[in-house]
Design a protein that fits this description.
Elements (H helix, E strand, L loop, with lengths): L50 H11 L12 E10 L18 E10 L14 E9 L2 E8 L12 H8 L15 H8 L5 H8 L13 E2 L4 E4 L5 E10 L8 H10 L3 H11 L5 E9 L1 H6 L19 E11 L3 H6 L12 E2 L4 H18 L79 H8 L3 H16 L4 H14 L1 H11 L38 E6 L5 H14 L2 E6 L5 E2 L5 E2 L3 E2 L10 E5 L5 H5 L2 H12 L4 E3 L4 H6 L8 E3 L5 H8 L6 H5 L4
Parallel strand pairs: 11-12, 11-16, 12-15, 16-17, 17-18
Antiparallel strand pairs: 1-2, 1-9, 2-3, 3-4, 5-7, 6-7, 6-10, 7-8, 8-9, 13-14
Bound molecules: CIS-heme D hydroxychlorin gamma-spirolactone 17R, 18S.
CIS-heme D hydroxychlorin gamma-spirolactone 17R, 18S (HDE) binds next to strand 2, strand 3, strand 4 and helix 9.
Length: 687
């Protein structure tokens, strides 16, 4: 091989004679040598003249754009929405007219507080934003996985976000709310208390994006062709069911696989296991709004499903990963102002503020007003307007006319169309100009209490433990006590448990409520995760821990049973070369034991050969695999050769630990459908 065929380090170059595959500059000029800059002699100075070097480096230097100020860490997926029930009587929106019609979509899931490079399993709200490329323009439903919000007026948003983000002097803590600044802000803003109940619940540590709900949060309007309006709240219900992890598990997942959620989504879609959500609407009228206990314009309140049932009108299917993360996931620009004829805003002051913020932030983030020209943001229906020029204009109006009205007849460009054009709902509005918060927004505790009493005992314990954890990270006692004074208005048991957890012996005075809470709101089962179990293991992952000589018939039975259920099976072995089973067949490893801890699986099976069982029992990652699975209430299948390891990991066998044979793989699956053996948690002492 001659020197000419070698790159700088002596490696062979990847060269081609195919013009199609020829590397070029951004100007289209073919490149002969991309490994060496232009020099005066082999050891001489690099020449300024080197346009290939300069162009490449210049572009690299400008690769980064500002990350989103919130929701920076996100993951986008293509899909489509299929209408299953037409609602022309409620809305003139084109997307809601024809049953069976599919509308392309792009959905981005996100965490709120962490930066782009933070970890997936932060305790945090998840964004759930969907762009519908409808035939009458783009509609963005920019929601969260929690149906209420921290604040009632958008003017408080910068403060809320500053308080949760890293402190400005030290630049930490990253991607967490467990610190003084956040709880200082919250405890001085009682309107946030309800949302913190959700945030301290397991909703804020979802098992994956696939297993969480989505909510439009605000009350919107649906407006029909006659101009009649109904109020609406939007819901996404995952067909996969709801599921979360437990806190100790979340902490460990962040270390084991900071990309846990995005990898889960990528893998599921790559495997053709497309996640789906039903789109539900809660529709109500002025009568209901006037009689409801709370103000429907207050985004810190929800409407219980028992009071207004959720009506399913369509299904979202996510079926394609992006081709390029930056071009699509990073450059997608959601704006709450992107609505279509038939859907309209209400006076919710949080929503009104968002309408300004999203457009504004995209201009900064994407560099100018033409971000709608980027393919992921452009409508897929025809569009015509007289907007022109600006940075990176990809399509300007054609012809000599770029204004209206004009008298150029058919050559005069696009014209208004009152028949199908957007019309705002003709709401009557009057009032004095003033900076006030409506009295009807003043109840901050009633729905927090309702949320708490709607949970199972296990879930209530998790909420108390989460408050205790987070407040224990607050160094200032006054902040801890101030929070406690609010929890006393939510529920005595909760306040007591948290006080005990914090070692508080003398309770503070309860906070003075702006309005006396309603204490007899009934529980709403829809608010609990555990009261709505999916009863399936489909879409979940079994970690199959195998050692040399493992019984092949058991391995096969487990693999088949779980595959038939629609679950994934990952093989974990002591070495990355995999293992040879009892029948001399082999299994390749998906993970070596210390790279595949049990926290990344939903259930585990230990199918061991007799050989080296004692040695495995002494392996620390193997012990952690088992003790964590046990502590996180997972179902564990085992064969007798795994006994030494189970003992070394301190496992006391219970109904959630199943001796597995080739014949009872199905029994193990039945157990796994419950997802967790919660009965164990009561016996485990986390204190
Ligand atoms: Fe956002 N929010 N937000 N937000 N939000 C942004 O817009 C804002 C709120 C939500 O995947 C930003 O493009 C204000 C509620 C999601 O790209 C920014 C207020 C809900 C995403 C912004 C809120 C959300 C954002 C930052 C209070 C649930 C990610 C980057 C009035 C209903 C979208 C961007 C994506 C992103 C402002 C409150 C959901 C700064 C001012 C309530 C899912 O414009």
């Amino acid at each position: 091989m001659t020197d000419k065929e070698l790159g700088k380090g002596g490696e062979p170059r990847q060269q081609t004679t195919d013009r199609e595959k020829t590397m070029t500059t951004a100007q289209g000029g073919p490149i002969a040598d991309d490994q060496n800059s232009l020099k005066a002699g082999p050891r001489g100075p690099v020449l300024m003249e080197d346009h290939i070097f300069r162009e490449k480096m210049f572009h690299f230097d400008h690769e980064r754009i500002p990350e989103r100020v919130v929701h920076a860490r996100g993951y986008g997926v293509h899909g489509h929405f299929e209408l299953t029930e037409a609602i022309p009587e409620l809305s003139a929106a084109d997307i809601f007219q024809r049953v069976g019609e599919k509308t392309p979509t792009f959905t981005r899931f996100s965490t709120v507080a962490g930066n782009k490079g933070s970890f997936d399993l932060a305790r945090d709200v998840r964004g759930f934003a969907t762009k519908f490329y409808t035939k009458e323009g783009n509609w963005d439903l920019v929601g969260n996985n929690i149906p209420v919000f921290f604040i009632q007026d958008a003017i408080k948003f910068p403060d809320l976000i500053h308080s949760v983000k890293p402190a400005p002097d030290r630049g930490f803590p990253q991607a967490q709310s467990a610190h003084d600044n956040f709880w200082d802000f919250v405890s001085l803003s009682p309107e946030a208390i309800h949302m913190t109940l959700w945030q301290m619940s397991d909703r804020a540590i979802p098992r994956s994006f696939r297993f969480m709900e989505g909510f439009g949060v605000h009350t919107f309007r649906l407006v029909n062709a006659e101009g009649k309006s109904h109020y609406v709240k939007f819901h996404w219900k995952p067909k996969q069911g709801l599921q979360s992890v437990v806190w100790n598990e979340a902490l460990k997942i962040n270390g084991a696989d900071p990309d846990f959620h995005r990898r889960d989504m990528w893998d599921a879609i790559d495997a053709g296991d497309y996640p789906q959500w039903d789109l539900g609407i809660q529709v109500f009228d002025d009568d209901f709004a006037d009689n409801f206990e709370f103000d429907i314009l207050d985004a810190t309140k929800l409407i219980p499903e028992e009071q207004v049932p959720v009506r399913i009108i369509g299904t979202l299917t996510l079926d394609a990963n992006v081709d390029n993360f930056f071009a699509e996931t990073e450059q997608v620009a959601f704006c709450t102002q992107n609505i279509v004829r038939g859907i309209d805003h209400t006076n919710d002051p949080l929503l009104q503020g968002r309408n300004f913020s999203y457009l504004d932030t995209q201009i900064k983030r994407l560099g100018g007003p033409n971000f709608t020209h980027i393919p992921i943001n452009a409508p897929k229906c025809p569009f015509h307007h007289f907007q022109q020029d600006g940075h990176m204009a990809m399509h300007n109006p054609k012809g000599r006319v770029n204004y209206e009205p004009n008298s150029w007849g058919d050559d005069g460009g696009p014209r208004e169309n009152p028949e199908i054009g957007f019309k705002s709902y003709a709401e009557e509005v009057s009032g004095t100009k003033q900076r006030v918060r409506s009295e009807t927004f003043a109840d901050h505790y009633s729905q927090a209490r309702q949320f708490y009493i709607s949970q199972t005992e296990i879930e209530q314990q998790h909420i108390a433990a989460a408050y205790t954890f987070e407040l224990s990270k607050c160094q200032e006692e006054r902040i801890r006590l101030r929070m406690l004074s609010h929890l006393m208005n939510v529920h005595d048991d909760l306040a007591k448990q948290v006080a005990e957890g914090l070692g508080v012996t003398e309770m503070p005075e309860p906070a003075t409520p702006a309005r006396e809470p309603i204490t007899d709101l009934p529980p709403s089962d829809a608010l609990s995760i555990l009261k709505n179990p999916p009863n399936t293991f489909a879409g979940r992952k079994l970690g199959l821990f195998l050692t040399e000589g493992a019984d092949a018939s058991i391995v096969e039975a487990l693999e088949k049973t779980f595959a038939d259920e629609g679950a994934m099976v990952a093989i974990v072995t002591p070495h990355i070369q995999g293992v040879t089973l009892s029948d001399c067949s082999t299994r390749a490893a998906d993970e070596k034991i210390d790279g595949g801890p049990s926290v990344v699986f939903d259930a585990v099976a230990l199918v061991f050969g007799d050989e080296k069982a004692d040695k495995i029992a002494k392996n620390k990652p193997a012990q952690d695999f088992v003790s964590d699975a046990f502590a996180h209430n997972k179902f564990i299948a085992w064969t007798t050769a795994a006994d030494p390891l189970l003992n070394a990991a301190g496992v006391e066998k219970d109904e959630g630990t199943v001796e597995v044979s080739a014949k009872n793989a199905d029994d193990f699956l039945q157990s796994c459908r419950k997802l967790r053996f919660w009965e164990r948690e009561e016996k485990l002492n986390w204190e």
